[in-house]
C-alpha cells in the first residue's frame, strides 16, 4: 500500500510541475445581461489565459452554467480552435432559447492540458418571445358581485408575471390570470429580470356594476287545466335591459331583446322548466329561479322515441310512449286516422311515411284525452348520387384508382336533405354506364386503369324510380414505359432492335437523338442508327415518354496492340508492335505513308503511328506513340515542377514493354501509390500531392515474382 501511494504522489507532482502557472481567467463579458429573441441571439466576450500557450491539439469550450450558476451539467456554447498561442481573444456565441434566470455564469475550459477557467459573475439571461399578449380578449368588464371576476392573458409565456393596477405594481404571480374585485385599470407584463419591459398586454378597465336580482312572478310550479295561455313575467321591466328566456336550459330563439314576459299555449310541447336572464345597462346579469309548467293531469304521457325518423326500403321505424296511468286507453293515429290494430299498445312499428300521434284517455273529466306530440315519418321522394375516384386523381397522371359512389342523398317532402348511409345501399339497384353502355358490375365501387378510360354514370333505382348521378370522366395515365435493348449493333450485325413495354392499342413514336424516326402500333424498333433512343407512347388522350437508352457500336476493345499504345525504344533498337483482333491491318506514319499491311510492324524510330484494323463493316483506328528512351540507370531524384525537365521517373528501356516486369512504388508510410505491369514512364501524375511533407518514395522492380531492383525516389522542386 505504501508503494502505490508513493507512485500516485509522484504522478501528481509531475502533473503539477507541468501545468504550473497556467491559468484561464474569468471571461470579460461585452454585455451586462443577455436579452435574446427570435431576431437577436449573438453575444461577445473576451477570453484570456496566462504564462504559456496550450498544446497544438488543445480545444477550448465556452460553457454556460444553469440558472443558479452551477456547472454540474454545463451547456457548451461554442468550441474554439486555433487560439492556443493567443493569450487573449474575442469570441461571439449564441445562448439556448430555454434560458430563463438571473444567475447564469460563463467560463472557458481547455482540453490539453485539461484546465477549467474561472467563471464570470452571475448575469441575467432571458429569451423574450415575439408574442402579442392579449388580456381578457380586449374586453373591459364590470364587477357585478363581491366574488369578483377573472381576467386572463391569451398565452402563458413566462414563469412569473407582473400585474399592474392604475399604473402601479399590484402583485407578482406565476399565474397568467388575475382575480379582480375592485375597479381600476389593469394590465400585465411577463417577468424577464433585467429584460423586462419590452412586452406587455393591453389595458383592461374594470368598472363597478349594479348588482340586482330578478324572479319570475307567480308560483314556482304551474299546472294549467284550461286552454288559456300561460304567461311568464319577469319581476323587473326596463326597456333598456336585455331579456333572455330559457326552456329546459336551451335558449328560446327569435325573441326581441326587450321581452319581459312570454305567453305560451297550454300544450304538451310547452311543458318544461323556464327561467329568464336579465342584463342591465352596466353589463351585469341576473338569472331567475326556474318555474316549471307541468301537465295538469294525473295521467302523464311521455315520448320515448325520436319524433322524426326516416324509412328507406325494408327498414322500419319504432314509435313509443309511456304513461303512468296503467288503466288508460291508448290509440295510435296516422294522418288523423285511427289505427285499429294499435289499440292499447305503447309501441308502434311503422313502414310508411306520415304523421303519427297517440291519444291516451284516462276517463277523468279534467284530464280528457291526452294527445302526444306528433311523430313525423319521412321517406325520400328523390335521390341524388355522386360518383368520383376515391383516391387522389389527376388526369393523365394517376395510373390507377377506384371509381365509387361517394355520396347518396335523399330529399324529403318537407325539403330537407338527408345522407343515405352505406348500410342502406342494398335497398337500391345500381347500374354503371361507361360512354352510355351498361357495365356488368353492380358494386358500389370498382377499380379502373388506363384501359377503362371514359365517361361514367350511375343509375340508382328505388321503388321503380330511376335517378342518374353526375357524369365522371376518367382519364388515367399510362404505366411506366421501359426500353430494353433486344439486339446490339455490331460490326458484323448492322441492325439493332429496341423493345418497349407493351400497351395494347397504343401508338409508339420513336426518337433517335431527339429526331422522330418511326411511328406506329408496334412496341419494337429495328434500326441501323446509333445514339440515344426514347419512345413516346400515347393512348386514350394520355401520353408518357420513356427514359432514354443508348445504342452504340462498341469497338473500343475489339483490337489490341502489344506492347501497348505507348511504346518506348532505346537507340539502335527495334521494337515489334503486334495487333490482334482485326481481319486486316494498315500501319501508317504521320505523313500518311503505308508502312505495313500485316498485324506486325517493326518500329525503329520514335513518332506517332496510326493503325487501321477492319472487322466486318467496322474500321477501328488506334494511335501508337513511340518515344525514345536513352536512360541507362534508374534515377533516384526527380523534380516534378512541370518544366519538362526530369518531371517523370524514367526507367531504362530494358524494364519497359515487358509484361513480366512489375513496378511498385510506396510512400514513406508503406502505402502503395503505384503497382503495374505496364509502366510507361508517366509517374508521378497530377493526382499526387507534390507538396507532401515527406517527399521520399521507395520503388521495387520485380520480374517473375522476384525483386531485381529497389531503391528510393526523392521529389525536389
From TrEMBL:
<dbReference type="Pfam" id="PF13585">
    <property type="entry name" value="CHU_C"/>
</dbReference>
<dbReference type="InterPro" id="IPR036179">
    <property type="entry name" value="Ig-like_dom_sf"/>
</dbReference>
<dbReference type="InterPro" id="IPR026341">
    <property type="entry name" value="T9SS_type_B"/>
</dbReference>
<protein>
    <recommendedName>
        <fullName>Ig-like domain-containing protein</fullName>
    </recommendedName>
</protein>
<dbReference type="InterPro" id="IPR013783">
    <property type="entry name" value="Ig-like_fold"/>
</dbReference>
